[in-house]
Write a structure and sequence with these properties.
single chain, alpha/beta, Rossmann fold, 8 helices, about 40% helix, about 25% strand, globular
Length: about 230
């Protein structure tokens, strides 16, 4: 695939670290990768934001390009955050144009959403609408423990209902000592979603240096995930 949309089942599930992992693995395999963040919320212009975290984890390389279309200071859904500061929201057509530009000289474009699949980019449009406009598969990043079955099943059900493709599910932060719910979810997540569980990143992976990060995510997801090609 040349474009992959990455959505969480909500906020704080490890979506940015998963995007960094995919970028690092593909770059290590000799591919050029672009990461597009349509709307960043909850950070000021002086802060790194999600793309800064991805660049830090991947490390210095000419094979990675990052692009952010808009940034809003309030930690809210992009549509609401844009309205609060009197700025226009990011529309799906803008995302499609940016992806098309990046795809011209990159092997893979990763589009990272804000929070969950139905978080509003505009009053009328969500990340699901972006995926539809791009005709791109969606990777779902889920939490490990209690409650994740419901959130993940709801997300994949929306994808199915809208005729969108689910690339699979990745657990964004797997605890060092998983509880009973987390252990059971390894079997239950694919059962309730109908989507493959593609891997689980260990908790704390986002704090690693680039070399250790690459080694860690390769062990968790595979050196070059077959489902990305």
């Amino acid at each position: 695939m040349s474009v992959l949309v990455v959505s969480g089942t909500g906020t704080g599930v490890g979506k940015t670290v998963v995007v960094a992992a995919l970028a690092a693995l593909e770059i290590a395999a000799g591919r050029r990768v672009a990461v597009l963040k349509p709307a960043q919320t909850g950070v000021t212009m002086d802060e790194l934001g999600d793309l800064g975290e991805i660049r830090r984890l991947v490390g210095e390389t000419d094979a990675l390009t990052t692009r952010e279309l808009a940034r809003y200071p309030d930690p809210l859904a992009p549509a609401t955050a844009a309205a609060r500061v009197g700025r226009p929201p990011v529309r799906p057509a803008q995302v499609v144009q940016a992806v098309q530009e990046l795809a011209e000289d990159h092997d893979l474009v990763l589009v990272e959403g804000a929070g969950g699949l139905l978080v509003r980019l505009t009053p009328e449009a969500t990340l699901a609408d972006v995926a539809a406009a791009l005709d791109a598969p969606v990777l779902v990043v889920a939490a490990a423990g209690l409650g994740t079955l419901n959130h993940t099943a709801l997300t994949t059900e929306v994808l199915t209902g809208r005729g969108l493709r689910c690339a699979g599910v990745v657990i964004g932060s797997w605890p060092a000592v998983p509880d009973l719910a987390a252990e059971c979810n390894l079997a239950d997540l694919p059962a309730v979603t109908g989507a493959p569980l593609l891997g689980r990143l260990p908790a704390g992976a986002g704090r690693l240096a680039p070399n250790e990060f690459l080694t860690t995510v390769a062990a968790a997801l595979g050196a070059a995930p077959a489902w990305l090609t």
